[in-house]
Write a structure and sequence with these properties.
Length: 594
């Protein structure tokens, strides 16, 4: 399911929404080292103000700034900083202003620009279908400049300038220009839509093509924390490891060790090393919000496919609470509650700011789960409930962890942290104390510093649900009798649901042999300065298998030849049977230790 970088990841944002944020927001591909001499409150203010300046709607900016004011004790100087921006966003809201890139414009003007961009995008799609890619690029470029809030034009431009595009530059200089353009377009999208994980993966691959492996690893690491259920991170990191083993990528020992360590973390618990089953780099296809989807139809390249799965739990009769990143931009959401049949549901509210979503259930049969009246102390055991996302028919499972004290060396807040890495699919599920009372909701499956995983505490859950369901009153329990995880499972099984999401993916006809969620780039990565690399068509075998009608005999009655379709090995036309081709990146400057 399921938000570089040069924008803030949604996890970092979530931490800013509770007193004493977990840490500074991480800009993808950059460091989050705190500024010396500044207090923790100053850093949380910096983080929140930065995030507010990136959010697309003034109401979202107002929400997180108001929460900051309510949850922090600020000095007069700090209060003035926050209030100044809060007043500005309230003015934008009252005057119906909307964000267009780095500026705010009137709503009517934004609508006019969007309509012009829609027309240009439709024209660009027509040009692509006709094979006129140069003119298509011009149309998409103009659309990007017209509508600074849109993402479709820049996504297509990013792909057109990647190895997936139909154009093949003839010189290293042209490739560098292509990659620079692709990077710019993907970065531009993430400034506007920091939650679009498909673009983060694609940007990482553009870094790989430029031999910027450390920057790619930073993006994949962020994305894995954000969306650990995505198979594309594992596949692409596996491909990078394979390229290193084959001698096509050289790194310093420290960088190579970091990549190998990250790969080991990704494959931990799988029972075996999970190298990619097929070669190549996986670019993630575009997914759009329903509003963006309705603007310009891409039906000819769109496919609905399973995107993610997670967990949710009943907080009020007829309403299920889950993680926003699971259901954001979903084409359909299906809930399986207890032993009941799966039902399709609609979201009541989705808050990217809080990473919380409320889903409306078709009936009120399931009971609400009780919330704990107190927060358990550090070192207490907690139980997490959820469904494995890797096995669609897996039953509700429980895992035990210990709460962790806040590390002194980091900027964690009072969010609950437990020691360990949660299983994919548990996101959105309840975390309970020893007595079986809910103390929070799982919010990310990626590990943080020292193997810690955060949980959204019930104080935040309470405020969010009560805001959108005025009739909501949490059922509080002070019971302290410790029960077994099996008993907790038995009590809660009928009120915890599997949440499965499908999304609408667009591949625009790019890539090779892709499934609906990704496109494959088989272009060789690096020749290590030799000028030759293995052929990406025949994978260095020199031959390809083709279907041909082969004579198998003669009909004795008619005397006519008999033919049968069989696979025949033929010399690869790309490499002329040699298994190697000239490296398109060869004479790109190559530094053994990047």
């Amino acid at each position: 399911m399921v938000r570089c970088r040069f924008c803030l990841c949604w996890i970092a944002l979530l931490w800013t929404l509770h007193p004493a944020s977990l840490q500074l927001p991480v800009v993808h591909g950059q460091s989050s080292t705190p500024f010396p001499g500044r207090t923790a409150v100053d850093r949380r203010i910096d983080s929140t103000l930065t995030r507010a300046r990136l959010l697309p709607k003034s109401g979202q900016s107002i929400e997180i700034l108001e929460h900051l004011l309510a949850s922090e004790k600020l000095s007069s100087e700090q209060l003035a900083r926050v209030t100044k921006d809060l007043v500005k966003y309230r003015d934008y809201q009252q005057t119906n202003m909307v964000r267009q890139g780095p500026t705010w414009i009137e709503f009517d003007e934004a609508q006019r620009r969007a309509a012009e961009a829609d027309s240009l995008i439709e024209r660009g799609v027509s040009y692509m279908q006709a094979g006129n890619h140069a003119t298509a690029k011009e149309a998409f470029q103009e659309a990007s400049e017209k509508d600074r809030a849109g993402i479709r034009a820049d996504f297509v431009l990013g792909i057109l300038n990647s190895p997936l595009g139909p154009e093949t530059p003839n010189s290293p200089k042209e490739w560098k220009e292509f990659f620079k353009a692709a990077e710019g377009h993907f970065r531009q999208i993430l400034v506007r839509s920091p939650d679009l994980s498909c673009v983060v993966n694609n940007l990482a691959l553009i870094y790989v093509r430029q031999a910027r492996y450390k920057e790619a690893l930073v993006l994949w690491n962020d994305l894995n924390k954000e969306d650990p259920d995505s198979p594309h991170v594992l596949h692409n990191v596996s491909e990078l490891v394979e390229q290193i083993k084959k001698g096509r990528v050289y790194l310093g020992k420290t960088d190579e060790k970091a990549i190998q360590s990250f790969y080991a973390d990704l494959t931990a618990g799988s029972g075996a090393s999970r190298a990619p089953r097929t070669p190549g780099w996986r670019y993630t296809n575009l997914t759009l919000s329903q509003a963006e989807e309705a603007r310009t139809r891409f039906d000819q390249t769109a496919v609905n496919a399973p995107a993610s799965s997670g967990t949710g739990f009943v907080v009020h009769p007829g309403y299920l609470l889950t993680a926003a990143h699971l259901v954001l931009d979903a084409n359909s959401i299906t809930v399986t509650l207890g032993s009941a049949a799966p039902v399709e549901v609609e979201p009541l509210v989705i808050s990217v700011v809080h990473d919380l979503a409320i889903l409306k259930l078709p009936n009120e049969n399931a009971s609400s789960l009780p919330f704990s009246a107190v927060t358990p102390p550090a070192s207490d055991s907690v139980t997490q409930l959820g469904f494995s996302s890797r096995i669609s028919s897996s039953p509700l499972a429980t895992r035990q962890f210990k709460l962790s004290p806040i590390p002194n060396t980091t900027h964690y807040s009072q969010l609950l942290l437990y020691q360990g890495i949660a299983n994919p699919g548990f996101s959105g599920g309840p975390v309970c104390d020893g007595a079986g009372n809910v103390i929070g909701m799982s919010t990310t499956l990626g590990s943080l510093d020292r193997g810690l995983t955060p949980t959204i505490p019930t104080a935040v859950l309470d405020a969010f649900v009560e805001k959108h369901l005025p009739e909501f009153r949490a059922m509080r329990r002070t019971e302290k009798n410790v029960v077994t995880p099996e008993m907790i499972h038995s009590r809660m099984a009928d009120s915890v649901a599997r949440v499965e999401v499908t999304k609408r993916y667009h591949n625009f006809g790019f890539g090779q042999a892709a499934n609906p969620t990704f496109a494959v780039d088989l272009l060789p990565t690096c020749c290590v300065g030799t000028g030759k690399v293995e052929c990406g068509v025949c994978r260095s075998t020199g031959t390809i298998s083709v279907k041909e009608m082969v004579k198998v005999g003669t009909n004795k009655l008619t005397g006519k030849d008999q033919f049968q379709q069989r696979g025949v090995k033929k010399a690869c036309q790309k490499c002329r049977g040699s298994g190697v081709v000239k490296c398109p990146f060869s004479p790109l400057p190559f530094n053994r230790y990047h």
